[in-house]
């Protein structure tokens, strides 16, 4: 048995007991198989909910959560109030939780797990006094060391605090001393937040939970206006924003939007969230309402103020705003710009890149044009199929020549004109592109123009004849 | 009575009345979003076709281009891109757009992109439209094509919007909305159907584009520039017609294919217009 609940504890059961033994004592016992992933998920969800108190939240597996409340406890009426609020929420969620506040991670963890949780709120007291009566296991030590110390009669932290350090280190390793130092604050222990701390944050809590979309949007405008002041002061603009909505039952909904140029305007930020909320639809389930909303700037960039021309209707930011709106509603990857890539393999020569990710003048078409003009390349097809499609019943007059007839998507095409071949081979250093391809530009009787290729050359394939593929369509 | 105005002759009265009715009608049409005038005109660069269009395509209006068959979507996209090339290159003097307003937004359903392939950058240059000017939007549903089209048409920085979709499933209210958006945003909108559609629509013109054989005795062997069979199937402002056109990417204009097989003559449904065909 790995863990027992309160009722089982009252019956005298404890973790570590064999299940068969426990069943023998209490046949009506309910046992649930361990699910570490589900445990981790729950812990993560709780940590998410704790994000309402401070952005610096870390998970302390398997069952702990660490909060750095330095500088933000006063927002909740003091450290004790914060702790009481946190515990009340946990109880509300049906969780049994203990919390302690201390100056170091080690001390807090020891007090929460082994101390008397009701009297551990006093963070100002000397760490030694508080730690001394606690068992050694509270120092987050490996079990072997705790057992070895116990054999020597050292059971409480107070027993080893005043022992000479060097023999301790020699006997039990530097780990023991480090944990003591960390708990006492002699050595710094950094808290690694589970989420990066955003550079700009604005939040608002509600006495009465909000659930309507209009209320959320109005709140976004208010928060964005506060962010605008902070952003302007530092000359920044937001490139990526996240709205975190804390539901009363502990769930946290996060909605992120991106922008294609640094943004400060609250109304523009609101417009992006309008699209995002519309796209999400019912996914944002307000339940019994949200009681805290936080708008954070995940990525900020220097924002240069632009002068708007007098009397012209030109709006240089107009296109970016459109791209942002479309990206927010449809998804970032769906709004793209065409970029030329340095490759002669047709499907790799051009790529669709999210328009939001593009900044000015890096599309690569100038280089492509120069190369195209110098090399005197043939006309390319207007539309390229996502994947070359095999064509059947190919009949070519000469083995290496263009097809005279072929079947594609069940229709038979009689070739009237053909140009080619244009041979394209992968680079010698890579397998990219597969076997050599001979491309032909053909026109059928109806005037349809295709770009098709034969994969592999006759001289290379002695056993099976090369296969034909349709790759593109001309206007 | 001396104070009463002189009564005009009955003929003059009728003329005045007709004139007044015309003005009322004009005002009503302006409200409805499709006036006789659709902003500046985007000419195709061919006097015959432009004559039928009354100078060119209205550049703040909605138009429809349908592929004659599913297999001819590439031809229809070529037609739309050729028009985009005319608009963005600045050769078209009638359409005076600021440089920032010459962007082209191409919106397509995923299904159509799988079936007909995505636009291929290296070819755009050949037609004459700079790939830098193009922004492509891939959407999952037809509703999103329409939504994105309306958004893009209303944007002042966009000169042309093409929405590629299957026919059917779009009603007159939707096309009316798009037409109004085009007028409001001063952008030219094209609905690119992957097959012909007969549904009523608020579009000013409807084109049905197919391929034509590029067989050319003068040129000898080889495949020439794209040659299209363009049928003007609806035209609010003038006669209809069918032409075999060839895109001249150097001069960026459509040319009538000279040595082509004969085509059916233009159908003149607006006798009060001078038809040039």
The CATH superfamily of the largest domain in chain B is identified as P-loop containing nucleotide triphosphate hydrolases
Distance between the termini of chain A: 71 Å
Number of strands of chain A: 14
SSE class of chain B:
alpha/beta
Structural class of chain A: alpha+beta
Instruction: Write down the CATH topology of the largest domain in chain B.
Output: Rossmann fold
Q: What is the global morphology of chain B? A: globular
The CATH class assignment of the largest domain in chain B is Alpha Beta
The number of distinct helices of chain B, counting runs of at least 4 residues, comes to 7
Contiguous runs where pLDDT drops below 50 for at least 5 residues of chain A:
none
SSE string of chain B: HEHEEHEHEHEHEHEEEEE
The unreliable regions of chain B are 31-36, 259-263, 273-277
Strand arrangement within the widest β-sheet of chain A reads: 9-10-11-12-13-14
Oligomer: heterodimer
The proportion of strand residues of chain B reads: 15-25%
Principal-axis shape of chain A: elongated
Helix share, percent of chain A: 25-40%
The largest sheet of chain A is: 6 strands, antiparallel, barrel
Q: Indicate the mean pLDDT of chain A.
A: 84
Strand residue content of chain A: 25-35%
- Portion of residues in helices of chain B? 25-40%
Describe what you observe in this structure:
- The complex is a heterodimer of chains A (475) and B (277).
- Chain A has 15 helices and 14 strands.
- With 475 residues, chain A is an alpha+beta fold.
- Chain A has helices at residues 6-10, 19-25, 36-50, 79-92, 105-114, 127-131, 143-151, 157-161, 165-172, 174-184, 213-234, 266-280, 318-330, 346-349, 365-375; strands spanning 57-60, 64-67, 200-210, 236-247, 252-263, 290-302, 335-340, 350-354, 383-396, 403-408, 411-424, 437-444, 449-455, 467-473.
- Helices cover 32% and strands 26% of the residues of chain A.
- In chain A, a hairpin with a 4-residue loop joins strand 12 (437-444) and strand 13 (449-455).
- In chain A, the strands form four sheets. Chain A has a six-stranded antiparallel β-barrel with strand order 9-10-11-12-13-14. A four-stranded antiparallel β-sheet of chain A has the order 3-6-4-5, with helices on both faces. In chain A, strands 1-2 form a two-stranded antiparallel sheet.
- Chain A folds into five domains: 1-34, no CATH class; 37-184, no CATH class; 200-307 and 314-324, Dna Ligase, domain 1, CATH 3.30.1490.100; 336-375, no CATH class; 383-473, no CATH class.
- By secondary structure, chain B is α/β, with parallel strands linked by helices.
- Chain B folds into two domains: 9-38; 39-256, P-loop containing nucleotide triphosphate hydrolases (Rossmann fold, 3-Layer(aba) Sandwich), CATH 3.40.50.
- Chain B contains seven helices and twelve strands.
- In chain B, helix 6 (142-154) packs parallel to helix 7.
- The longest helix of chain B has 23 residues, at 10-32.
- At the A-B interface, helix 13, strand 7, helix 15, strand 9 and strand 11 of A face helix 3, helix 4, strand 5, helix 5 and strand 6 of B.
């Amino acid at each position: 048995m790995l863990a027992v609940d309160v009722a089982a504890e009252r019956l005298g059961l404890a973790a570590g007991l064999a299940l068969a033994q426990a069943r023998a004592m209490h046949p009506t016992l309910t046992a649930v198989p361990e699910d570490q992933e589900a445990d981790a998920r729950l812990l993560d969800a709780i940590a998410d909910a704790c994000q309402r108190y401070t952005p610096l939240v870390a998970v302390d597996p398997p069952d702990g959560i660490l909060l750095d409340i330095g500088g933000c406890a006063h927002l909740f009426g003091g450290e004790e109030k914060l702790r009481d609020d946190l515990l009340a929420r946990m109880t509300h969620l049906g969780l049994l939780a203990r919390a302690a506040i201390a100056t170091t991670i080690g001390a807090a963890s020891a007090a929460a797990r082994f101390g008397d949780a009701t009297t551990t709120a006093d963070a100002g007291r000397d760490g030694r006094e508080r730690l001394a009566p606690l068992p050694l296991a509270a120092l987050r030590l490996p079990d072997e060391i705790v057992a070895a110390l116990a054999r020597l009669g050292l059971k409480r932290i107070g027993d080893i605090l005043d022992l000479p350090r060097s023999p301790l280190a020699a006997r039990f390793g530097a780990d023991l001393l480090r944990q003591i130092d960390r708990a006492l604050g002699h050595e710094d222990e950094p808290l690694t937040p589970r989420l990066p701390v955003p550079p700009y944050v604005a939040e608002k809590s509600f006495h009465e939970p909000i659930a309507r979309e209009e209320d959320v949007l109005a709140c976004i405008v208010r928060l964005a206006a506060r962010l605008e002041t902070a952003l302007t002061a530092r000359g920044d603009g937001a490139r990526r924003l996240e709205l975190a909505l804390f539901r009363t039952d502990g769930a946290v909904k996060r909605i992120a939007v991106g922008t294609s140029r640094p943004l400060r305007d609250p109304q523009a930020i609101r417009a992006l969230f309008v699209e995002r909320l519309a796209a999400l639809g019912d996914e944002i389930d307000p339940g019994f309402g949200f009681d805290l909303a936080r708008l954070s700037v995940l990525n900020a960039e220097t924002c240069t103020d632009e002068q708007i021309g007098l009397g012209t209707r030109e709006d240089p930011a107009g296109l970016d705003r459109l791209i942002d709106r479309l990206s927010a509603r449809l998804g970032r990857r769906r709004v793209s710009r065409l970029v030329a890539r340095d490759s002669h393999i047709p499907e790799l020569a051009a790529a669709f890149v999210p328009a939001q990710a593009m900044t000015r003048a890096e599309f690569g078409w100038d280089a492509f044009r120069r190369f195209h003009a110098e090399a005197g390349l043939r006309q390319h097809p207007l539309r390229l199929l996502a994947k070359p499609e095999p064509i059947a019943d190919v009949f070519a007059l000469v083995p290496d020549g263009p097809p005279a007839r072929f079947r594609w998507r069940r229709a038979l095409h009689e070739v009237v004109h053909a140009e080619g071949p244009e041979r394209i081979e992968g680079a010698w250093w890579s397998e990219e592109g597969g076997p050599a391809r001979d491309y032909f530009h053909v026109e059928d009787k109806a005037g349809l123009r295709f770009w098709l290729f034969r994969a592999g050359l006759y001289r290379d394939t002695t056993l099976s004849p090369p296969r034909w593929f349709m790759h593109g369509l001309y206007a | 009575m001396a104070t009463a105005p002189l009564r005009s002759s009955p003929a003059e009265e009728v003329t005045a009345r007709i004139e007044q009715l015309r003005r009322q009608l004009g005002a009503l049409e302006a409200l409805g979003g499709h006036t006789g005038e659709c902003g500046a005109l985007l000419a195709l660069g061919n006097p015959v076709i432009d004559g039928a269009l009354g100078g060119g395509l209205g550049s703040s209006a909605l138009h429809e281009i349908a592929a004659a068959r599913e297999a001819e979507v590439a031809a229809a996209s070529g037609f739309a891109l050729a028009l985009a090339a005319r608009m963005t290159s600045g050769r078209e003097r009638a359409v005076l757009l600021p440089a920032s307003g010459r962007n082209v937004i191409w919106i397509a359903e995923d299904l159509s992109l799988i079936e007909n392939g995505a636009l291929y950058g290296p070819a755009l240059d050949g037609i004459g439209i700079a790939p830098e000017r193009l922004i492509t939007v891939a959407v999952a549903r037809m509703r999103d094509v329409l939504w994105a089209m309306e958004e893009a048409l209303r944007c002042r920085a966009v000169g042309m919007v093409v929405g590629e979709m299957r026919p059917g499933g779009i009603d007159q209210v939707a096309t009316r909305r798009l037409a109004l958006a085009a007028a409001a945003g001063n952008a030219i909108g094209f609905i690119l159907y992957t097959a012909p559609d007969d549904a009523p629509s608020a579009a000013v013109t409807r084109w049905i584009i197919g391929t034509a054989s590029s067989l050319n005795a003068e040129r000898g062997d080889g495949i020439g520039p794209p040659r299209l069979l363009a049928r003007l199937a609806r035209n609010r402002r003038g006669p209809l017609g069918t032409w075999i056109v060839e895109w001249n990417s150097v001069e960026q204009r459509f040319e009538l294919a000279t040595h082509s097989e004969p085509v059916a003559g233009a159908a003149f449904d607006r006798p009060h217009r001078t038809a040039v065909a």
